[in-house]
Known about the structure:
By secondary structure, the protein is mainly alpha-helical. It has helices spanning 5-26, 31-51, 56-83, 91-118. The model has no long low-confidence stretch (mean pLDDT 96).
Amino acid sequence: xxxxxxxxxxxxxxxxxxxxxxxxxxxxxxVISNQLFKxxxxxxxxxxxxxxxxxxxxxxxxxxxxxxxxxxxxxxxRLLKHSKLVNIDVTKELKYIDEIIRILSSIVKTTEQSxxxxx
Length: 119
């Protein structure tokens, strides 16, 4: 099966988060970096699970979890940016997560509509 755009983007974003996590750890920022690591890498994991979903409803549930993890990740990135705990620019990551959120939101809405039409 071909890899979807959201699979590719969420995987590449996870790699970005791992790099950012490493930088944050070097600056001795442990609390937010751990939260960011968990939520930022979880997006792609849930997208992968969704791609192997047992049903449309299972697919929707996993994509919705990925969407929520993406929103949480955006929160941690915004907190890093505005708290100025470390002097690391997260503008690129914020733009990337906004794109992922838009894609996931569209997937969730379209899937919900598809399921509702079938019932």
